[in-house]
Structures are given as C-alpha cells and as structure tokens.
Design a protein that fits this description.
Blueprint lengths: L1 H10 L19 H22 L1 H8 L6 H4 L1 H24 L1 H12 L2 H7 L3 H30 L4 H30 L7 H16 L5 H9 L18 H11 L1 H30 L4 H29 L2 H20 L3 H29 L5 H30 L1 H22 L5 H4 L10
Helix pairs in contact: 2-8, 2-9, 2-10, 5-6, 5-8, 5-17, 6-8, 6-10, 7-8, 8-9, 8-11, 8-17, 9-14, 9-16, 12-13, 12-17, 13-14, 13-16, 13-17, 13-18, 14-16, 15-16, 15-18, 16-17, 17-18
Main location: membrane
GO molecular function: transmembrane transporter activity
InterPro entries: MFS, MFS_dom, MFS_trans_sf, MFS_Transporters, Sugar_transporter_CS
Length: 446
C-alpha cells in the first residue's frame, strides 16, 4: 500500500509552490499606490498652504511685529527644521523603511494647527513652525522617495511632476481658501480648521493604506546597470553617509549643481512667502486679493509641473533647470518694479512657471545620478540644501528689507537666482539617458 502510494506520487506531475517575484517597477504597475501617495502629498502641501496667506498678516495685525526680520522668524525656524529633517529622513528611510518615517511625520503634524489657533505669543507660532518643518521634512521627503522607488528609471520626471504638482496645488488651493476665510471670519481660528482635517486624514491614510516601497529600490539596485560612458564609475554601490553628502553637495557636478539651484529656488520662495503679502498690503490690496496672489504662484507652479516633469523625460533636465531659474529671476524683477494687482498677477504666473520648470527636474536629476542603494540619502541631502533656502531667504530678505526696504530685497534675490541659473548652465551635464544617448538601466522585471 505504501509502495503504491509512492508509485502514484512518482507518476504525478511535480507540485509547484507559488512564490512572489520581485516587485514590478513602473507607473502603470503601481498605479494604485502611486495615486495614493499623490493624494497624501497633496495633504502634506495643504498643511503648508494654511500659513501662506494668514501668518504674515497675523504677525503684523495680532502680534504687532513691524521689523521684517522678526516677522520672518517663523520661516527661518521652518526652513532650518525642515532642512535638517530632510537629511535625516533619507537616512532613516533606508534604515527603518519608508512607511514608518511617513507615519512619524504625520504624528508630528497633528498639533501644528492647534498651536496656531491658540498661540498667545509669536513664540508659539515659531514653535509650531519648527514642528511643521519636521513634519514636512519627514512626509514630503518620504513621498518623493517612495514614488521614485515605484516608477523605476524611465519615468522619474513624470513621477516628480505628479508629486510636486499635488503638493503645490494643495498649497495654492489652501492659501486661496484661507484668504477668503480670513476675510470673512478673521485671521483665527477658522483658516486653520483645514489644517486639522488635513492632519487627521493624512495620518489615517499613511497608517492604514500606504504600503512599504523599499523593496522596489532594492530590486532596482540588484539590476542596476552602470552608464555606458563610464561617467559614474567612481560612484560605487556602497557609499558612507559622509561620501554621499560630499558627492551630492560639492563633488559630483550634476548633484551639486542641483543642490545649489534648489537652495536658491527656495530662497526666493521664502521671500515670496514671507514678504510678498506685506508688500501687497502696503500698496493697498485687501486680504482677498492678497490671497489670490498668494495662491496664483503655487497654482501655476503646481499645474506646470505636470507638463515640465514629463517633458524633461523627453527633452532632458538641464534646459528646464537653466531656463526656469532665469525666468524666476525675471519674475522677481517684475515684482520689484510693479505697484498694482495686474502687474503682480503676471509676475506670479511667471514665477510659478519658472519654479515649475525647476522643481521636478531637480529631483529627477538626483534620481538619474544617485545609485539606488544610496539614492534615498542623496534625496535627503539635496532637500537639506534646498529647504535650507527657506532659512537663508528668511534671514537675508528680512535683514535687507529692514535696512533698504522690501523692493531692494527682491532685487538682490532676483540677481542671486540669475547667477544660480548661470552656474547650472556652466557646470551641470545632462543626466537623462534620452538626451545623452546612454541606454537606461535594464528594468529588473522586463
């Protein structure tokens, strides 16, 4: 009986055990998780947007701050906190996984709108912005890294366009809505109710629905093919944190060019966030119109990235970065010479368009050059420099505005932005394979 059973088993087809293959890379293959992360990053942007219209006016009208340097302390605190956290987020997401870092960022965000509502002094507002910077560093950095993980090498520009578009469209919509709420109900508390809703929804989605993506990066790393031209042969698979920092910040031409351009880009964004509403108000614009201008710039920025990110996958990264920086410089000059609503509308549109050309392509450049094994750390270091621009911009613009006036500060930042574009034009090489003729790394899943 036993021998009969063995004979039957020997004559039967061998049993197969279903095993999960490597994770599939690509936008279509990961559409559900990618769309979810786009929605989560929109909520991240909304947390930032709740401040864009209201806080500069709150500083002057409720807390009596008149010195521009004092007014911009909240942006300085935000920028420093976010920059440092960006750096840590890249390292932590490699060590602990992407999802825990994302969830931690949302936990930190929960008290922010409550502190802004109840703040009895400006110090509370500054403290709230330290928490906001930490939260933004953890959440926004991680959604960037997770999208790069999912889509693979061919569609990074498009992926970053979707990511940044969602975030900054949410900034724009929230800035517009909070402007109208402030005009109708006052500067507090109604405009910050949106922040409470955003934090609750973002924490819930990130905890319950978002899935870990680090395995996608590991799969890509296993099939990584060096460039045929040998350009990155000196960048080995395994680099220490210090080596990644040096390459991203100073040594590697494309990575370091992107880092300085990111810093200057957010330097002028810090200026726009902190001083433009004050400039508009000093020319007699009401809160409603200030809200429109505060929303228009990130709206064009957000929508434009849906186009520029995808086009950089076909036309290359460098033309968009150089052109975008120069267009931003021209837009800032127009803000400085303008004195009425229509001129500032045009300037806001141009500034948003220039930023849309730069933002997703800088991130895609990091993804092009950095090896998958240390790419998350490189993204974090790039974002350390980029969001450090908020702090530099707040300090520089505040001091210049106090000494020479807001318009002089705008002129100086316009000049710095033009110089940054020239640095990219001279130092950065094209990083995208379709423009260099270098075949892209083979997809690990075919």
């Amino acid at each position: 009986m036993s021998s009969g059973r063995n004979a039957a088993e020997e004559g039967a087809a061998p049993r197969t055990v279903a095993t999960a293959g490597p994770p599939r890379l690509g936008l279509r293959e990961n559409a559900a998780q990618f769309a979810l992360l786009v929605a989560v990053n929109a909520l991240v942007g909304g947390m930032l947007g709740q401040e864009r219209t209201v806080l500069p006016l709150l500083a002057e009208r409720e807390f009596g701050l008149t010195a521009y340097t004092a007014v911009l302390t909240y942006i300085l605190a935000f920028g420093l906190a976010k920059a440092v956290t960006n750096y840590l987020a890249g390292a932590w997401s490699d060590r602990y996984g992407r999802k825990p870092v994302l969830v931690a960022g949302w936990i930190v965000a929960v008290p922010v709108p409550l502190l802004l509502i109840w703040a009895p002094s400006w110090g509370w507002v500054v403290a709230a912005n330290v928490l906001l910077g930490i939260s933004q560093g953890l959440t926004w950095s991680t959604t960037v890294i997770m999208k790069i993980d999912l889509v693979g090498p061919a569609r990074r520009g498009l992926a970053m366009g979707f990511n940044e578009a969602a975030g900054y469209l949410a900034v724009a919509v929230t800035a517009l809505v909070t402007g109208y709420l402030a005009a109708a109900h006052g500067l507090r508390p109604e405009p910050f109710f949106l922040g409470i809703a955003y934090a609750a929804l973002g924490l819930g989605l990130s905890t319950l629905v978002v899935r870990e993506t680090i395995q996608h990066a590991r799969s890509e790393a296993g099939a990584h093919v060096p460039r045929a031209d040998g350009l990155h042969d000196h960048l080995h698979e395994e680099l220490t944190q210090r080596q990644v920092f040096v390459q991203t910040s100073f040594r590697e031409p494309a990575l370091s060019s992107a880092s300085q351009a990111g810093l200057v880009n957010n330097l002028n964004d810090g200026l726009a966030w902190g001083l433009f509403p004050v400039l508009y108000a000093s020319s007699g614009l009401g809160v409603g119109r200030i809200g429109v201008l505060a929303a228009l710039y990130p709206a064009v920025w957000g929508l434009g990235q849906l186009v520029t990110g995808a086009l950089s996958d076909h036309w290359g990264r460098k033309p968009f970065i150089v052109g975008g920086m120069l267009l931003q410089a021209a837009a800032l000059a127009l803000v400085a010479v303008g004195d009425d609503f229509p001129v500032w509308v045009v300037a806001a549109v141009l500034l948003g368009a220039g930023t849309a050309m730069v933002y997703p392509t800088l991130l895609a450049t990091i993804g092009d050059v950095a090896h998958p094994r240390w790419r998350a750390r490189s993204v974090g270091i790039y974002r350390l420099w980029r969001d450090g621009g908020f702090a530099v911009g707040a300090l520089l613009a505040g001091v210049l505005a106090d000494l020479y006036g807001i318009r002089a500060a705008v002129w100086v930042v316009a000049a710095l932005t033009a110089v940054s574009g020239a640095v990219v034009a001279m130092r950065m090489y094209e990083t995208h394979h379709r423009r260099t003729g270098v075949p892209r790394p083979a997809d690990p899943v075919g």
